[in-house]
Amino acid sequence: MRRIAALLFTLAAGRALAASDLSGRVVDAAGKAIPNAHVYVYTAHPKTGPSAICPSCYRDCGKHEAAGGNGEFRIASLDDTLVFTILAVAPGFRPVYAKSVDAGRGPVTITLTERPADSDVIIRGVVLDPEGKPVVGAAVEPRGYRIGNRIGYGNLPGVDNLSITDQTGAFALRIPDCEARLDVVVHARNFAPKIARDFRPWESRPIVLGVGSTIHGRAMRDGRPAPGVRIAFVQRNRASGDFLGTEEIATNEDGVFVMTWLGPNVEYVVGPALSRSPWPDQQRSHQVTTGAEGSLVDAGVIELK
Q: 15-111 adopts what CATH topology?
């Protein structure tokens, strides 16, 4: 983990120090203040150009503040070169992501909607970190819907398509049949994605996330480092039941790329991303298998032509 931290520090070094405070207000659907809300800086990306740093690796990510009695909040000193994804949570309300927030553009208003009473068939669970602490703001999505020996993927009628964990790490997804079971995939800031299978209605289970594995390497063109190149990461096994999603990072001025929080012990195809696509160019890609939790794997040099 120290080697990974050193690589990330190198990528982040030298960033601009100009900063603005982010202020705003958390309200309900009627515009009434929610006094017990909590606001998190979830991820970030540059205002211009690709990012050579993972979305949750910027120094401002992880900052958080509680809203006051009037629903107002202020988060100090956010990098002016970045835009942010902000997460707001409050008991009794659905968590919400506010995307592409620019701290320098003035106050923002985040609207939460009340969570309806649970009267349908519900899949429940709680997302935890390796120390057993709740993971706030994790996105939990259906991955497979099982009835008997049948399983469906993709568009699942009657199944909620997303739940975001609250401040206790809890999530809930509605399904149409009490005899069914649900597989879910979890994505969370600073953790590797994970698929958890066979959730049954009304039987809450924990999902423990890990830090996963990191892949690093360098892109070169004509013997020189290639900066600003989009590098895509996709599993070689793209079966619907096992697919964790695609990832992307850009090379820095030295042509170096570092992709953190990848699934452990998974074979990835790593290469320059196709134009306007999250998929790598197969002809210039390397096949790289990640290691165990906390491991660092070298993808070598990717030659561009």
A: Protocatechuate 3,4-Dioxygenase, subunit A (2.60.130)
* C-alpha triplet 150, 236, 232: angle, nearest 5°: 120
The first and second tokens of residue 10, run together, are 């190198």
Q: Is 189 helix (H, G, I), strand (E, B) or coil?
A: coil
pTM: 0.85
Choose among 97, 34, 100: nearest CA to 70: 34
- Dist. CA 82–CA 19, nearest whole Å: 10
CATH of range 213-304; options 3.10.310.40, 2.60.40.10, 3.30.420.10, 2.40.50.140 = 2.60.40.10
CA distance 270 to 280: 6
The residues with which 247 forms a beta bridge, in sequence order, are 233
**Residue 177 contacts residue 222 (beta carbons within 8 Å):** no
Torsion over CA: 114, 117, 120, 126 (sign): positive
- Integer Cα distance of 126 and 188 in angstroms: 13
Q: What is the DSSP track for 240-295?
A: TTT----EEEE--TTSEEEEEEEPTT-EEEEEEBPTTSSSB-GGG-EEEE--STT-
Domain with CATH 2.60.40.10 in the chain: 213-304
Chunked into runs of 10 residues, the chain (305 residues) has average pLDDT values of 57 66 96 93 92 90 92 96 95 91 95 79 95 96 92 88 91 92 95 96 93 96 94 93 92 95 96 87 92 96 91
Task: Provide the CATH topology of domain 121-208.
Answer: Immunoglobulin-like (2.60.40)
Closest to 55 measured CA to CA, from 64, 45, 41: 45
